[in-house]
Design a protein that fits this description.
The protein is α/β, with parallel strands linked by helices and 369 residues long. Among the domains are: 79 residues; 159 residues, Histidine kinase-like ATPase, C-terminal domain (Heat Shock Protein 90). 55% of the residues lie in helices and 13% in strands. It is built from eight helices and eight strands, in the order ααααβαββαββααβββ. The chain has a six-stranded mixed sheet with strand order 2-4-5-7-6-8, covered by helices on one side. The chain has a two-stranded antiparallel ribbon with strand order 1-3. The protein starts with 14 loop residues before the first helix and ends with a strand.
Length: 369
């Protein structure tokens, strides 16, 4: 928190006194010098016109200062009072000297215009905030509704899957219906995957965070991903960082994140390719970098890949990356992604080395072109 700078203690003279005191001092010195000259030169006492002229000069100075007090001091006092009202939140405050046709009036008009702009900006911010709050509430309601529907659909779907399996066993081998059963089962599994992802996104479980070896967590995810490419010309390389200490994380959830990113990389590689997983320490973070040689992500899609249900694949649910982002954010971490079409993609998962609830960190997922 920035410390408020306070003025030094003690009484401070106003600008009017700072102006009057030197003038009065000069006038007094002038009168004393004038009297000394009169005595020294033995000017006749009848020449009081000089004394009158000196007195007139004093009167003119005081009249000038009085006019300055009216023209300058009062607007300054009003401006100071109005600024205090604005600081307290009253954006309806205005200065009254804005109608004057001089520099002070111009200053007043500019000040009033500035306060008017601040009032309009605040009203716009409040309007946008209310809109975002209403939208968030609407989305939360839809999320609860979707989660409820997904939960209700899963049970009948499991029954349908069981019936299809029974039908497959009881149908004669020569029956033409056997040919469509595998397709039906694939579609059922696809729907089940979508429902599971939807439930996980709508009702995420809190992470069970404890100190664990992040190298082992990533290694397990790489092992599972390698099982998916045993028959494909895709190489998955793991470069661990043995110097990394045990960090606070949920190994199951972080393994899910890394596996999701690895599977995305596998699906992005159409023929032969490579995926490299590198761990390193960056300040107070452990960083897991996943680089693939796939087709990359279109630039127009980079800003949308973390939004729910957005996908560039026909078989995708559009919930994998939002789920991964949510898990990393629950660890007070962040995800960064860079990609160029035709040159692959690179994801970096940043996890804090310290306990997540002991030090707040920025958890926004960043997309870098």
């Amino acid at each position: 928190m920035r410390e408020t700078q306070r003025p030094p203690k003690g009484t401070s003279l106003g600008w009017q006194w700072k102006a009057i005191i030197p003038i009065v001092g000069v006038l007094l010195l002038g009168l004393i010098a004038f009297q000394a000259i009169v005595v020294a030169l033995e000017i006749p006492s009848g020449h009081w016109i000089l004394v009158v002229a000196a007195a007139g000069a004093v009167v003119i100075c005081f009249v000038t200062l009085t006019v300055l007090l009216i023209l300058i001091e009062r607007p300054l006092a009003e401006l100071k009072k109005t600024i205090g009202r604005v600081r307290a939140g009253d954006l309806s405050a205005r200065v009254t000297f804005a109608g004057r046709n001089d520099d002070v009036g111009q200053l007043g008009r500019q000040f009033n215009e500035m306060i008017q702009q601040l009032a309009e900006n605040r009203a716009e911010i409040e309007r946008l905030h209310q809109g975002e709050m209403a939208r968030a509430e609407h989305l939360a309601t839809l999320g609860e509704l979707a989660a409820g529907l997904a939960h209700e659909i899963r049970n009948p779907l499991a029954g349908i899957a069981g019936v299809v399996e029974v039908m497959g066993r009881e149908l004669p081998k020569e029956s033409s219906s056997r040919a469509v059963l595998p397709e039906v089962q694939i579609e059922i599994h696809h729907i089940q995957a979508i429902l599971n992802d939807l439930l996980a996104y709508a009702r995420p479980r809190p992470p069970e965070i404890h100190p664990a070896d992040v190298n082992a967590t990533v290694e397990q995810a790489v092992f599972l991903a390698r099982q998916q490419v045993r028959t494909k010309p895709i190489e998955i390389i793991l470069v661990p960082e043995k110097k990394l200490p045990r960090i606070w994380h949920d190994p199951v959830q972080i393994q899910q994140v890394i596996l999701n990113l690895l599977l995305n990389g596998i699906q992005a590689i159409q023929n032969q390719g490579k995926i490299e997983v590198v761990l390193r320490q960056e300040g107070e973070y452990s960083v897991i970098r996943i680089t693939d040689t796939g087709k990359g992500i279109p630039r127009e899609s980079l800003s949308r890949i973390f939004k729910p249900f957005f996908t560039t694949r026909k078989e995708g649910t559009g919930l994998g990356l939002p789920l991964a982002k949510g898990i990393v954010e629950s660890h007070k971490g962040k995800i960064e992604v860079t990609s160029e079409p035709g040159q692959g993609a690179q994801f970096e998962v940043w996890l804090p080395m310290l306990r997540p609830d002991s030090q707040p960190v920025n958890s926004e997922a960043r997309v870098i072109n």
